[in-house]
Write a structure and sequence with these properties.
Layout (H helix, E strand, L loop, with lengths): L7 E2 L1 E4 L6 H31 L6 H29 L4 E3 H34 L4 H4 L2 H17 L2 H9 L2 E2 L3 E2 L5 H6 L6 H34 L4 H29 L9 H25 L1 H24 L1
Parallel strand pairs: 2-5
Antiparallel strand pairs: 1-4, 2-3
Helix pairs in contact: 1-2, 1-10, 2-3, 2-10, 3-5, 3-6, 3-8, 3-9, 8-9, 9-10
């Protein structure tokens, strides 16, 4: 049914976190810190994997791709959010909002496929060690990563195209970034069928990837528990725990946000989860992979010591 008594709009207004200017400045400071840490940290992981020969393996290649995804996540969502904290009224044009939606969900889908590929990589490394170098050769890894990025950016294209054809009406207020539920809720027409198709597709994709990923990790866990040597078991658990932690958090939030009907637009829980997903997760994944991989920590220490020596040499030369 057509929605009546509503005015057409060409821009959306972001809701504020708080009406208190002091709290807005506090939120700005916290989110800016998270933004910088995530930006620098994920860029550092990409840098280390590219330059350190120890990380020229399939596992770290896909971790590098995952860091690239997280890097672009923060670039897509946080700068606009930070600007809104310091403005009297944060606004975004409809085309810009649809563009943000497209890139956010493209990266979302890309991360889904990369995590699924990483699960298969670990499965192949443990259960097919003799064929593993052939199965995951550099050319194969590059092809798989390319497919993940291509299909990821292809998935939300249809929905984004439909959004570009829709007119939007008042009230033109949305939460802190351009999420699908909020945009469709502001359309001038009933978009139930479009949303139902979208949720059916996302549910099938997420649950299918989850089933494949969990089946792989369940078999990996059974193999690790059967290992006779404690040292080998601890090393395997380190890698396993890091990846499983990322996968559990990621799929848990995905299922909460997308594997359910599009209802309760104003739920405060939805807002909190959406912010956690878009702001905290990129930094959290970085911390998990850094803390759980001994090689990464050692490489970071070496890099920091080199930077310190360069700084000291620069001071002495002056």
């Amino acid at each position: 049914m057509e929605k009546v008594n509503r005015t057409l709009v060409t821009e959306f207004v972001f809701l504020r976190f708080s009406n208190s200017p002091h709290l807005q400045v506090l939120f700005f400071s916290l989110f800016l810190l998270v933004y910088l840490l995530s930006l620098v940290g994920n860029a550092l992981i990409v840098f280390l994997v590219a330059l350190d020969g120890r990380f020229h393996t399939p596992m770290y290649f896909f971790i590098c791709n995952l860091s690239l995804v997280e890097l672009w996540y923060t670039i897509v969502t946080l700068p606009k959010m930070l600007a809104n904290f310091l403005s009297a009224q944060g606004v975004i044009s409809v085309p810009s909002c649809i563009t943000q939606y497209y890139f956010f969900f493209s990266l979302d889908a890309t991360e889904l496929f990369i995590l699924t590929t990483m699960a298969f990589d670990r499965y192949a490394a443990i259960f097919h060690p003799l064929h593993y170098p052939l199965l995951f050769s550099p050319q194969t890894c590059a092809t798989l990563a390319g497919i993940c990025w291509f299909v990821g950016f292809l998935c939300p294209m249809f929905h984004s195209f439909l959004l570009a054809q829709i007119s939007f009406c008042t009230p033109n207020q949305i939460n802190h970034f351009c999420d699908a539920d909020h945009i469709f809720h502001l359309s001038c027409i009933d978009t139930y069928v479009i949303q139902a198709v979208g949720y059916a597709f996302s549910t099938a994709s997420i649950l299918g990837a989850l089933a494949f990923t969990m089946a792989s990790y369940a078999q990996i866990l059974a193999t690790i528990l059967a290992m006779a040597l404690a040292a080998a078991q601890r090393k395997a658990f380190s890698t396993y725990t890091a990846q499983l932690s990322v996968v559990t958090i990621y799929f848990g939030i995905l299922i909460f946000m997308y594997v359910r009907p599009a209802v309760k637009y104003e739920s405060n829980i939805n807002k909190i989860v959406a912010i956690f997903y878009s702001v905290i997760i990129p930094l959290l994944n970085l911390l998990i992979y850094t803390l759980c991989h001994k090689d990464v920590k050692e490489s970071l220490k070496v890099l920091v010591s080199r930077i310190q020596r360069i700084c000291q040499a620069s001071k002495q030369s002056r």
